[in-house]
Structures are given as C-alpha cells and as structure tokens.
Amino acid sequence: MVHNKAKEVTFYHAGCPVCISAENSVLSLIDPAVKVTIVHLGKEKEKIADARKAGIKSVPALLLGQEVLHINFGASLDDIK
Amino acid sequence: MVHNKAKEVTFYHAGCPVCISAENSVLSLIDPAVKVTIVHLGKEKEKIADARKAGIKSVPALLLGQEVLHINFGASLDDIK
Questions:
Q1: At the N or C end, where does chain B have fewer CB atoms within 10 A?
Q2: pLDDT by residue (tens digit) across B10-41?
Q3: Cross-referenced Gene3D superfamilies, in alphabetical order (chains A, B) (predicted)?
C-alpha cells in the first residue's frame, strides 16, 4: 500500500554543473509514476518570480506541492537574476 | 527504455524536523524499484565516520553510489557528534 505519493514535482535548475549532476541523480531515482517538470531558470527568466514565491532560494531545487527541497547548492536565485 | 537507474540509495538523517519532513518527501518520490536504506545518525553514531568518508557534511542527505545529495539543512555532522 502506498500513501501520500507526490504526483507532480518541478525541478528547478540553471544549467550549472551542480544542477546537471543533481538533475541526473534525481531523475534516476524518481518514481516513473511521478510527473516531473524541468524548469531552466537561466533560459526561462520569466519563471524566476514564481519560483521565488514558491520558496525557492537556490538551484538545484525540487518543488513538491508547497514544499521545497534545496538539493546541494549550485547558484542563488539572486545570481540568476 | 531506462538508463542509468540508481538501484540503491542511503538516506541519512538525525531525527530533526527538517530531516523528517525531507524523508517523507523523498520517500514519496523514489521509484519503488530503488532500495532505500535509512540511517539515523543520532541513534547509529558508529556510522558517522562512514558517512563523513562518503562525503556527507550535513543531514538530511541522500547517498547514491559515490554522489551525495544534501537536501535542505537540518544539522551539521559535527553537531551530531
């Protein structure tokens, strides 16, 4: 029996080496049943404001509903802006 | 086709609120095919040295082979010791 499965997550990154390495690892682990959206904040700068509102402070980060998992540290959101 | 799937990971934590929250989220996301070992460094202090050798600097953290994903920040390994 599986409880409380997250069905949708967003992985935020900015193309940095730490981001890419984390992306590969995270994607290799995530349940195939989970829908993963990948947002490259360096290329999609219009999404930085939303990411900030969601509580993202640095990338790479994974957003699950309202919870943010900051994974290692690649770059601060301020440095992308 | 699935490439490069991690088959085994270790989740290190120390029972802190940040750890427990991250544990719930991470476990809800991980592919059921991946074997997850959970190590509570507060209770299994003999494993702190190994964790340090593997590159763990703080908990919660996920170890995949030789790669460490530090997830948010609950406590430094030094604070557990």
A1: N
A2: 999 999 999 999 999 999 999 999 999 999 99
A3: Glutaredoxin (3.40.30.10)
